[in-house]
Each structure stands twice: as C-alpha cells, then as structure tokens.
C-alpha cells in the first residue's frame, strides 16, 4: 500500500492523504494534465473511506491542484509546491506539513559586516558585525531552496555553528532560545541563476528564480533575521489570498 497514513497521529487522515497525494504530484508520478486514479481506487490503495478521499479532493480543487469533472474523472492542474504569504511559516514547517523530509547543508557560517542597506534595516551602524548563515535546503533529498540569513540575536543569546549544523530548522533553533519570529516584511522578485546558484539548485545558468527578501521580527517588533530565500520557479510557488 503506497499510502503510509498514521492512524495514531492527531493529524486528520484526510489531511495526511492529501499531503501524500500532493507529494506524488511533485515527484512526477502524476504530471500536470494527467488524470489521477478514481476515488474508489484511492480508497482501496490507502485503506480509507470515500468520505475521507472526497474531503481531501475538495480542498485540492479549491487550492487549484486538480479539476474534477463528473463522469470524466480528475485531472492534475499543477504540481508545484504552493506556499502562502498570509501566514508566517518556515520552509521546514511547510515541507513537514506536506509529509516531506527536510535536510539542510550549511554552506557558510560567519560573523561579518552586512551590506549597508541591511545594516540600515537593523538600525545599526555600517561597521557592526552580524551573524551570517548560508544554507541549501532540501526536501526528500532534492535541492529546493537557497537560504541566506543575517541575524542579530539580542542580549547575551549566542548561536554556534555546531547548533546550526545540527538543526533542521533555524527558526526552531531560535525559538528554543526564546526568540520567536512573529511578523515579517517580504519583497518578491525574479532573479536569474548565477553559476553558483544554478549549481546548488541543479538548474541551467540563467534560469529564472524566485527571490523572497526581507526582515523578520521577534517580540516588540525587534528585527531579528534579514533573509533571502531563492528557489527555482518550477519547484516552488507562492500564493496569497486577497480580499476587498
């Protein structure tokens, strides 16, 4: 049985099933434009009820992953990871919610002078040193995100290279030290893959990448992390809900 659902978990079965199916989309088991198995086939494959399958399918259709036509079946519309911008969450949280394994490769750890505009965002002088962390983030062993961070932990709080190497999530490490990220300002833009970024993400040089840049704040709007999150557009997608 492909569906490894944990019936002892507090996570609802419909949500576990949904994340499992989306992972199969992203692994190209079902490509955009292709049909997926009928509901009853999925019921038998995962050992769950038809109502559970239908609830997951309804959410997936509302989120734009699939299109269901009565009497004709269900077709995949898109397979890229979709990340909302209305809720502050980390890459690790997003991937784990999808049932994917997250790992990080630490590329650089240093104390350095940031670019002047980043120092200005922190409200510090141009010569003040900040902690610099440069990582490659992987989901199920595949490179997905390049993450550059400048950090200014308050007070006597320190972060070591060994701690970062051993942490799956930098935000979880910060929270363990009492530094919870509560809000952020973000700017999204398209950039082209340099030789270094292309090699890290396993894409051709010049590939269009998505870059999300900005400051994240802890309690009392204290700036804590200025980061760059860079990914290939065919692996990652951002979404935002707007109301008028």
Overview of the structural elements:
The protein is α+β, with helices and mostly antiparallel strands and 244 residues long. It has two domains: 13-76, Winged helix-like DNA-binding domain superfamily/Winged helix DNA-binding domain (Arc Repressor Mutant, subunit A), CATH 1.10.10.10; 81-239, Chorismate lyase-like (Chorismate lyase). The chain is built from eight helices and eleven strands. It has helices at 13-26, 39-46, 50-62, 91-97, 116-122, 161-166, 170-176, 195-201, and strands spanning 66-69, 73-76, 81-84, 102-112, 130-139, 142-151, 183-184, 187-192, 208-218, 222-232, 236-239. Strands 4, 5, 6, 7, 8, 9 and 10 form a seven-stranded antiparallel sheet that branches. Helix 1 crosses helix 3 (50-62) and helix 2 (39-46) packs across helix 3 (50-62). The radius of gyration is 20 Å and the shape is elongated. The chain starts with 12 loop residues before the first helix and ends in a 5-residue tail after the last strand. The mean pLDDT is 84.
